[in-house]
Every structure is written in structure tokens, then in C-alpha cells.
């Protein structure tokens, strides 16, 4: 996907110089100089670097029904893997056309069953019912299902080309636990793209207050938490004069919810857990840099003069996040922290807005990194599947085909065409997708580390040491239990 995204965005950014782009052919980097330049140019023109048709399998499954088990439609993002027919909508039509091509190629019928994924997988495996060919639980659920030996180890299936771009390579690295890969991400379903943490910002407010462009700060490697916080305090003010920032009339620096600590933590280059280098994991609570980063996150999220969270908003409950998007949508917040799927809520926004990665903690960080939400849907094969080779072959065919028209429809039409408003945001999107990360602490929730961290951030820096010590014992036991379960799982 990274390669496709880079090419797709580059094409959009450089469309006005298409003629010059033709002269900058990748073949020019080859040290071997052809004797016939004309024939070389012709060969380069004929070669399609995005043609992966050689990876499409050849088989006849005699009308087999390939049933995809998935949770009912999630309202905050795109998560479709099957549609009934052509509707004229580029994204859903691409899904239908992809499925139709693979149905014809392999002589199968693709169907979808919406329901409780976790329970359905458990029931089918326990009963030995070969009902579902593949399934899409959340990342957190998949982690648990793997520990219960209900899933197939994807690394054992030779039909997959897991080093190819239709598989998310970051997921391969992060989600391999005890050398087992029970769940992963591929382009059959792009919901994991939709579930990536990002920042939206109000460009009109940046102009009104004559602030430096966040785009330029990103490019110059100066987009840090301190810069973000400074811009927040510049904009925030008590518009209604009641002495507090807690009403729709007020202006805020940052509207979000407590989940944003995930985006901020990953943006700072930190995570809840770290690999110990020997196949296990340790809590990251106690490291010196983690403490400094967490203090900064707490300073931003707890700044009642600039940040507003659900419990600080008049008439909003702690679990009601509509106010966050509405405050930004109505032009009363400089930044809005959410996932890419929330683009759809902003399409009719009157104020101009842009897209950013979460800021770094310090400029010496190498990359801007954005985390995938732990509720993102993950690709799995239930152990109840009798012909696992068939499920893998069909899945790989769908993923390979998705790397073409389907991903183009999503990136070029749904995201850049309908949601992104400027070329700078397209560039930011490339950065966001290129350096995506997953946090096993957030996914597995070992020892209640996720809630403990959030509570510590909320309470203040002096609580980090005690919080880390409080969960240390149960955290270590929880990690050991998961690793033992993964190692002992059959996975076939």
C-alpha cells in the first residue's frame, strides 16, 4: 500500500508537470546504459510497475461460497468488504467490481455475514462448523482470540505473499507475537487506514492569528508538542465572557477526547510497551523519556485554558464526543484530534481545514508516527476452516486485486477527492500512512496498562512512578500468560 499511496499522491501533486515526470523514469537509475535509447524508452513506457497480475492465483473452486464474517457496519468509518451491486459511488463500485473479478477468476461466490464476530468464531471452532472463510474482529479481540487458539497462524500459509505492498508491513512487524501471526492487515478491507490517528486543523484560524503554517513546521522538522501547545494557547479565549472555556461560543486550541493520548504518545515516538529483545515485552512506564513525554501530554490534555474534553463541556457527558467534532466543524477549535475516518464529518465544513500527523516530542525524532486504533478491524482465518489453503488463496487474490482500482478509488476519490482540500494535506497523508505504528500495550491491554496510563496522565506526573509500580506484577504475569498461550497454540 505504501508504494501505491506514494505513486497515487505524487500523481495528484504533480499532475501539472506530467510531461516532465515522464522523463524522470525510474529506469534512469539503472547503471546499465542501453545501446538503443529509443527502444529503452518504449520498454519503460510499456512496463506497468503497478501490475501485480502475476500474483493472482489460478484455481477452480466449483462455486464455493467464500463467506466473510464481519461486525455490523461501523458508523464512523468505511469498512465495507462486500456490496450487493453497482451504485455509482466510486468506492463501493470498486469493491463490487473487485469481488466480481475474483468470483469469475476462481469460480466462487463471495458473501458477507454481519454479526458478533468473537462469539461466532468461538462457536464455529468449538462445534467444528466450517461456516466462515475469513473474519474481521477488532485488533484487541483478535489478540484474545489468538490466545484462545481459535485462529490460524498466517505465517504458516505459503499462499500469502506477506512481504508485498497489499499487506501492511508495519502490522507484520508489530503484530507478530511469539513468532506467531494470528492477525494482520491487508487491503481487502481498508478500515485500518480509517482508524489511524491524525490531527485536523483550522486553516482560517491559523491565518487570522498570523501563525506559522503547520505544514511548513512538519516539513522543517519543527512540528513538536511545544509548537502545538503554543498555537493552542494563542487561539483559545473565553468568547462568552463567563470566565471559563466550556461553551460552544468559546474558542479552543484543541477539541478531542481522552483517546487522543494514544495519538500523542505515538507521535512522540513512545508506546505503552517495548520489546525486551528476547521475545517478551516490558512496560514503558518507567523510562525517563516516557515520563517527560507523558508530562507533556498531560500538560496539553489537562490545560483547561486551551483544551476541552467531554467532561468540561456544558451539556455533554463524558462519553459523548459529538461536541468535539461540532466545535471544530463550527470553526471554534484550532485542532481536532481523531482518526482519518472522521473526514466524512467535515466535508461540508465552512472553514478551510487541513490534515497533520500528531507532533513529535522533540525535533531529533526521525519520523512523524501515527498509531492505528485498537478497535481497527483485523484480518483473521478461524481454525474452523477446513481448507485453509483455499481461504488463503482467495484472500490473497482479493488483496492483490485491491491494490489496483479499489485502493485508487479509496485514496484518489474518497479521501483526496471528497475530503482533502489541498495538496499539502495529501503530502501529510503520505507521511501518516508511511510511518504508521501499532502499540501492543493498547491492543492486548496487558495488566490494565491502557487505563492505568490514562489515569496517570489525568492525575499528573507525580503519579507515574506509583502507577507503574502498581501494575508491574500483574502486567508481567499478563504478558507471560499471553506469550505462553501463543507459543502453545496449535494455529493450524
Descriptive key words:
alpha/beta, disordered N terminus, 19 helices, 5-stranded mixed beta sheet, D-Maltodextrin-Binding Protein, domain 2, globular, 12 strands, 3-stranded parallel beta sheet, 492 residues
CATH superfamily of the largest domain: Periplasmic binding protein-like II
* Biggest sheet character: 5 strands, mixed
Describe the strand arrangement of the main beta sheet, using strand numbers.
8-5-9-4-10
Q: Give the tally of structural domains.
A: 2
Number of helix segments?
19
Radius of gyration: 24 Å
Stretches with pLDDT under 50, minimum 5 residues:
1-47
Number of strands: 12
The CATH class assignment of the largest domain is: Alpha Beta
CATH level 3 topology of the largest domain: D-Maltodextrin-Binding Protein, domain 2
**Helicity level, as a percent range?**
40-55%
The CATH architecture of the largest domain would be 3-Layer(aba) Sandwich
Distance between the termini: 28 Å
- Indicate the proportion of strand residues: 5-15%
Shape: globular
Q: What structural class is derived from the secondary structure elements?
A: alpha/beta
Amino acid at each position: 500500500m505504501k508504494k501505491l499511496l506514494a505513486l497515487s499522491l505524487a500523481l495528484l501533486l504533480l499532475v501539472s508537470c506530467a510531461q516532465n515526470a515522464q522523463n524522470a523514469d525510474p529506469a534512469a537509475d539503472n547503471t546499465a546504459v542501453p545501446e538503443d535509447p529509443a527502444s529503452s524508452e518504449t520498454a519503460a513506457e510499456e512496463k506497468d510497475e503497478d501490475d501485480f497480475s502475476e500474483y493472482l492465483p489460478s484455481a477452480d473452486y466449483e462455486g464455493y461460497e467464500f463467506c466473510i464474517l464481519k461486525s455490523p457496519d461501523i458508523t464512523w468509518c468505511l469498512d465495507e468488504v462486500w456490496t450487493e451491486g453497482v451504485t455509482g459511488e466510486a468506492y463501493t463500485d470498486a469493491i463490487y467490481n473487485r469481488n466480481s473479478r475474483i468470483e469469475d477468476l476462481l469460480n466462487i461466490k463471495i458473501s458477507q455475514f454481519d454479526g458478533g464476530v468473537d462469539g461466532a468464531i468461538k462457536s464455529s471452532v468449538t462445534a467444528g462448523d466450517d461456516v466462515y472463510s475469513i473474519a474481521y474482529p477488532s485488533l484487541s479481540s483478535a489478540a484474545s482470540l489468538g490466545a484462545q487458539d481459535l485462529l490460524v497462524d498466517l505465517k504458516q500459509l505459503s499462499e500469502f505473499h506477506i512481504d508485498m505492498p497489499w499487506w501492511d508491513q508495519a502490522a507484520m512487524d508489530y503484530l507478530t507475537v511469539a513468532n506467531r501471526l494470528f492477525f494482520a492487515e491487508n487491503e481487502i478491507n481498508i478500515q485500518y487506514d480509517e482508524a489511524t490517528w491524525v490531527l485536523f486543523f483550522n486553516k482560517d484560524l491559523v491565518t487570522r492569528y498570523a501563525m506559522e503554517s503547520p505544514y511548513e513546521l512538519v516539513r522543517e522538522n519543527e512540528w513538536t508538542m511545544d509548537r502545538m501547545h503554543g498555537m493552542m494557547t494563542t487561539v483559545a479565549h473565553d468568547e462568552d465572557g463567563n470566565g471559563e472555556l466550556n461553551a460552544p461560543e468559546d474558542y479552543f486550541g484543541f477539541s478531542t477526547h481522552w483517546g487522543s493520548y494514544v495519538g500523542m504518545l505515538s507521535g512522540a515516538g513512545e508506546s505503552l510497551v517495548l520489546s525486551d529483545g528476547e521475545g517478551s515485552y516490558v512496560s514503558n512506564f518507567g523510562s525517563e523519556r516516557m515520563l517527560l513525554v507523558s508530562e507533556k501530554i498531560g500538560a496539553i490534555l489537562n490545560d483547561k485554558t486551551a483544551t476541552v474534553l467531554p467532561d468540561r463541556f456544558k451539556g455533554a457527558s463524558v462519553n459523548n464526543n459529538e461536541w468535539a467534532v461540532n466545535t471544530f466543524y463550527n470553526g471554534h477549535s484550532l485542532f481536532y484530534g481523531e482518526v482519518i475516518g472522521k473526514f466524512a464529518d467535515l466535508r461540508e465544513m465552512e472553514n478551510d481545514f487541513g490534515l497533520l500527523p500528531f507532533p513529535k516530542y522533540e525535533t531529533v525524532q526521525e519520523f512523524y508516527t501515527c498509531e492505528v486504533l485498537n478497535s481497527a478491524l483485523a484480518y483473521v482465518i478461524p481454525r474452523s476452516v477446513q481448507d485453509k489453503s483455499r481461504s488463503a488463496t482467495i484472500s490473497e487474490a482479493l488483496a492483490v486485486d485491491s491494490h489496483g482500482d479499489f485502493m485508487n478509488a479509496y485514496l484518489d476519490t474518497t479521501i483526496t477527492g471528497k475530503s482533502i482540500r489541498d495538496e499539502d494535506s495529501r503530502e501529510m497523508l503520505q507521511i501518516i500512512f508511511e510511518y504508521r505504528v501499532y502499540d501492543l500495550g493498547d491492543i492486548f491491554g496487558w495488566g490494565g496498562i491502557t487505563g492505568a496510563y490514562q489515569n496517570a496522565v489525568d492525575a499528573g506526573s507525580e503519579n507515574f512512578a506509583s502507577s507503574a509500580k502498581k501494575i508491574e506484577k500483574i502486567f508481567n504475569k499478563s504478558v507471560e500468560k499471553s506469550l505462553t498461550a501463543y507459543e502453545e497454540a496449535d494455529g493450524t
